[in-house]
Amino acid sequence: MDDRLIVALDVGNALAGQELADRIGDAVSFYKIGLGMLTGGGLALARELKDERGKRVFLDMKLFDIGATVEAAVRGLAQFDLDFLTVHGDPHVVRAAKEGAAGSQTKILGVTVLTSLDRADLDAAMIAPGDLHDLTVERAVRAFEAGADGVIASPREATAIRALPESEGRLIVTPGVRPNGAALGDQKRVETPADAISAGADHIVVGRPVWQAADPRAAAQAILDELP
Questions:
Q1: Residue 184: is its pLDDT beyond 60?
Q2: Distance between CA 189 and CA 175 in Å, rounded?
């Protein structure tokens, strides 16, 4: 199966996630579980997807804290044999996460700039001034230098990040992906699935266009069919 498509199980609880995975069946081999499901059985669902269904799992926690806390949290999560785990791309966070993941197969992905944010949002949060594209690429460089196995970035930065010497052998995973005609929702820096892969992404993350579809399996298959 083509694991370049990661379907975000952004539903209310593990039971709804199981039902969605049942409807999608063997069309998808990689799923993302995020913070929204953490208190609804998200870790139990991750184990089921991995151990009973043979799926790959991306746990999207976007951890951020002091180094010791991040390291401890990642060490605890890594025991679940996750494929990907996100932390904020700040170097001290990435370094701590890599320490916590040592000895496991879990790959640590550093978040650059969320795809739901634009320059005005960064200004409101008092983030360093400058072009958002350049800031995202620089955060990718710093995450790679700190040891990240990959980064989370919008498709619009994927080409520039892939061109970095530091990106060799590293992953680029892109949310902010919408098929043609799909509603943008809260995403602001968006491209199509085919454009994201062509730009250099290894994996694309798609949620609502799949799980809100009348036929989620068909929606996922249509995205896979358009990938180059």
A1: no
A2: 9
